[in-house]
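Risk register update: the risk of archive-format incompatibility is retired. Evidence:
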Amino acid sequence: MGQSQYQIGQQYLLGSLLFICILLLFILVLLRNVIQRKKAEREVEEAKDHLQGSYQELAATHAQLLASEQELHRQFLELQTNREALRLSRERYRLAMEGSEGGIWDWDFGEKKIFISTRGRNMIDLSHTQ
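Archived output:
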């Protein structure tokens, strides 16, 4: 039952070919994994760049919102100051009119209207219906 050297050589050659095929298959799997990893790394880098751009855009929008909020707050304070000044002016005007017992009249050329206070009407003898 001895095997001839030819048969041993064939077995050795088949074994070597099988080993080479398995090694090539292993190399192909590794190469595929390396290619997939490189692709994934590129995708991660692109996502990171996109995220960085989105963050910068968000930071700029946040800065604009803060500036708008500050401007609105300034305008609100100015409006409050103006309202209080108007209230005080109206109060002083009312007190001055009551104290002076004088009549007031106003002629609005644009609206073509004339206003005459009750005291003013009484002073010039006009009724409220005229």
